[in-house]
Design goal:
Length: 195
């Protein structure tokens, strides 16, 4: 088999496993999802899973990275309808918090992700969100929209507030009731940065 075709097949298998895991983790949760059922559903073996991800936890990390990256992209798209600058940055944070009501996001990223992968602030996908927020904050400070504060601190706290609000909403008994409260406080806290 040619090297190019082999690499193509490996990528195809990886994508199949991520898609199957995403479905299983969303429906059953990480702990209850069977690796044998998951691999069989796409015609692969546990060996393919271990080769690509090391273990079930590695597969969860790949699924979380995919879903979390999609969340960030969706938040950017939603926020793109807001006026550029502060309104857009705030809208992006609010959009991220609102995604805590999405069943797949709730289960995979906000509940199982932290439970099995640890602190989300260390995830590569969260670091990409931080970098984007950091750039936006630096620009807003330079344009005298925000107070002249430490850029990294402001970006980290804005990201952390949105993430923790989403985690709180996702874990709530009645997330629909907690959501507007989380958004209200997020906006009040964020507004403290404005001049």
């Amino acid at each position: 088999m040619a090297v190019g075709r082999r690499a193509e097949m490996m990528e195809e298998n990886r994508n199949k496993l991520i898609a199957a895991a995403r479905k299983a983790f969303a429906e059953k949760g990480f702990a209850a999802a069977s690796m044998d059922d998951l691999t069989a559903s796409v015609g692969l073996t546990r060996g393919a899973l271990y080769h690509n991800f090391g273990d079930k936890r590695g597969l969860l990390a790949a699924v979380v990275a995919q879903v979390d990256s999609e969340m960030a992209q969706r938040a950017k798209e939603i926020a793109s309808t807001a006026e550029a600058g502060w309104d857009r940055l705030l809208a992006e944070g609010i959009a991220y918090i609102k995604m805590a009501l999405d069943a797949e996001v709730q289960r995979i990223v906000l509940l199982d992700g932290p439970a099995f992968l640890g602190d989300p602030s260390g995830w590569p996908s969260q670091n990409a969100c931080f970098d984007a927020t950091r750039s936006a904050v630096a620009e807003l400070i330079a344009r005298d929209v925000l107070r002249p504060v430490e850029v990294d601190a402001a970006a980290r706290l804005l990201n952390g507030a949105a993430l923790n609000a989403a985690l709180w909403v996702a874990a709530a008994q009645e997330p629909e009731i907690k959501l507007p409260k989380a958004i209200e406080v997020f906006v009040l806290m964020a507004e403290g940065l404005r001049l």
